[in-house]
Structure formats: C-alpha cells, structure tokens
Write a sequence for this structure.
C-alpha cells in the first residue's frame, strides 16, 4: 500500500510544535509500511524573509517527510498578498504532486490532515488521477461559541473545507465529540475514531513518596487554556492548605507571572518554560496530577500523556475530554468555574490514594500506544480500499 500524506500542519524548524501530534500518527503508521509526507508551510509569520523556496526533511524509518517554505508575496496590500499566496501555494503543491507521481507512481491513498489548505490539493488529485483520500481533522473550530470558528472564516477557507469533506472517502478525528459535529455539518458518510498517539517509552508511571504533592499544567499557555483561572483557583486552594506545588510547563506570559506574585503564589508555583518533548515527559512523570482548565478544546494530547504516566486528570469538561476522563482516573469540572476547580484540587489532595497510578497508566497505554494507533490506521486504510 502506497500512502501519501498531505498535511496542513506539521512540525518544522520554524515551529517544532506545529502539528507534532500528526507526526506521531505518521510514525505510528510507519511501523507497518512506508509513509510519505508533504507539508507546505502556511504561517506567514514564519515565511517573512524567505526569498526562495526552502526545503527541509524530517525522516525516520519508513517515514519521509518533506517540508517546504514558499516566498511570501509583498505587494503592500494584505488582501492581495493573501490571494497571491493562496494561488502560489496551490500551484506549487500541484507541481510537487506531479513530481511525486513521476518518481513513485500514483499513491493508493492520500491522507489529508486538516482541510485548509492541503485539502484542495487532494480534491484536485482525486479529480485528475482518481486517487481516493481520507481526512483527519484536529481543529475544534466547528462550533459557533469558539473564537475564530469555521463560520467566521473567509469564503476561501469555508470553500476548501466543504470541498475537502464532501469529496473525502472517509473522515476521522481523535474524539467522538468532533466526529459527530462534522457528520452534522458536512453529512460525512464514513467515519473513524482514531485517538492521538502517546510515546509510552517516555510517558509511563513512576512511584513517588513526596509529602508535598505536585500538580502540573502543560500547554502553550494560549488564552483558551485559561491559565489565569488556574492561578485564581490555586489562590483559593492556598487559603485551605499549602502542602502542594505546581509546575507550569510552557511559555509563561509576563501577565501570568505578575498575577502569581499578586496572588501570593510564588512559593507554590514554578514556571518551567518550554521544554523538549522528552523533558516534558520527565516533568510529567515527576508529578502527581494534571491540571487542565481550558475554555474549549478538542481532546489535547497532554491529557492522554498524563494518563499514560498514571496521573489523575483534573480538567474542565470540554470537547472530547469526558470520553476518556472519569471517576477512576480524574475529575471533571465546569469550564470557567474557579470554585469547582478549587474544590476538585482540594479533594485530590485529601483523597489522592483513591487513584491507582499503575492501573490508570496501563489502561491509557493500551489505548494510545504507537503500535495500537498505527494498527488502527493501517486497518482503516485496508478496509476502505477493499470497499472501493
């Protein structure tokens, strides 16, 4: 089976965290057969200063990933720049596809990760060569209450998204929550739930006998993660007891650092900054529970990773998180409700022993390990192609 991935997001030198979960999916599938990945960078911030096409590769066993940076047009008019870039993007992708087929032959299947903008290339490839494609969507922006949602985007964005879903052979996501929404909006016929991958060689349980329990929060600290809400809940928790600490892993803003001081939390809070993936895993193994308080979300990798470390997850009940967090492995609270979060944190401190760390980790590892997800992808492809 020859599979070509067209990715709208993918890690690269300018942004190593851009769609890193997609790369982990690719590595999982590569356990079973060859995977070729193409990604043309869309982020205009990272394209500034690029004067000629730049290519880089991220290759491992059975996985060849090619990432391209295109020069960004500069006419002095933003809307004209966007229009010209979109045309250049599609023309360049078409050229890449032609070159790929000339060397490797037609792929048996194309897998699009995130419709905009790579999805349109898959549609054109399907039209010209009759190569079927599937889509995996990772974005939660299909609900009106989410900022910068699908409905607020420009016509081009909505057109590419609709075309991609309508022409796809099948669609997958990492949560049933999003899968049902896509079915409702785009009348998707064939669907598949395939969870995010966790590297269980890095994320595994370690028994600790610390007297001072340690919470951990891991994110890029975007506003949707509601770090401010976590800090305010911690301030209320401190009024009840102080035998705890928390590590924040990710880029800390000046505002959140200042709020930490204002709330009198400097003795409890440690800002660890942005860490390499292996160091994130080490920090997770050294913690006792994950705190996640997003205003909205799909199903973030950090929840899966925490569970594979055996950490109970104390989280807002948003997106697909409730599909994997329950009374045996965590606590769910209402998004934005600081008092509920405070109560959940205090309850964990008092009744930590109700959670079985090794059991939580074992159950999660069964669901999210690389071999299992790779097997699901491989079986999904074979099943779809057998029906054609």
């Amino acid at each position: 089976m020859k599979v070509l991935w067209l990715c709208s997001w993918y890690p690269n030198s300018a942004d190593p965290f851009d769609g890193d979960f997609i790369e982990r999916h690719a590595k999982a599938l590569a356990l079973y057969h060859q995977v070729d990945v193409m990604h043309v960078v869309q982020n205009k911030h990272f394209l500034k200063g690029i004067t000629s096409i730049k290519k880089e590769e991220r290759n491992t066993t059975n996985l060849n990933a090619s990432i391209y940076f295109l020069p960004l047009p500069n006419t002095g008019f933003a809307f004209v720049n966007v229009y010209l870039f979109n045309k250049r993007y599609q023309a360049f992708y078409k050229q890449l596809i032609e070159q790929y087929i000339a060397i490797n032959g037609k792929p048996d299947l194309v897998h699009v990760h995130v419709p905009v903008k790579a999805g349109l290339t898959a549609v054109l490839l399907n039209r010209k060569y009759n190569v079927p494609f599937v889509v995996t969507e990772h974005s939660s922006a299909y609900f009106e209450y989410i900022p910068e949602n699908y409905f607020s985007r420009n016509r081009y964005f909505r057109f590419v998204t609709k075309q991609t879903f309508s022409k796809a052979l099948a669609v997958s996501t990492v949560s049933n929550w999003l899968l049902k929404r896509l079915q409702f909006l785009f009348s998707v016929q064939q669907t598949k739930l395939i969870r995010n991958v966790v590297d269980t060689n890095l994320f595994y349980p370690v028994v600790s006998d610390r007297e001072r329990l340690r919470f951990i929060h891991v994110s890029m600290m975007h506003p949707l993660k509601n770090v401010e809400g976590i800090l305010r809940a911690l301030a209320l928790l401190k009024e009840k007891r102080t035998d705890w600490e928390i590590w924040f892993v990710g880029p800390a803003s000046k505002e959140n650092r200042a709020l930490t001081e204002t709330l009198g939390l400097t003795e409890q809070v440690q800002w660890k900054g942005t860490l390499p993936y292996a160091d994130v895993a080490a920090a997770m193994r050294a913690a006792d529970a994950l705190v996640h308080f997003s205003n909205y979300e799909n199903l973030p990798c950090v929840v899966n990773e925490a569970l594979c470390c055996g950490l109970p997850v104390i989280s807002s009940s948003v997106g697909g998180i409730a599909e994997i967090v329950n009374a045996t492995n965590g606590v769910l609270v209402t998004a934005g409700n600081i008092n509920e979060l405070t109560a959940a944190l205090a309850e964990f401190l008092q009744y930590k022993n109700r959670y079985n760390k090794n059991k939580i980790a074992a159950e999660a590892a069964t669901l999210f390990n690389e071999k299992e997800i790779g097997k699901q992808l491989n079986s999904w492809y074979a099943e779809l192609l057998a029906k054609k």
About this structure: The two ends are 14 Å apart (CA to CA). The chain has two domains: 3-197+369-387, 213-368. The mean pLDDT is 94. The first strand starts at residue 3 and ends at 7.
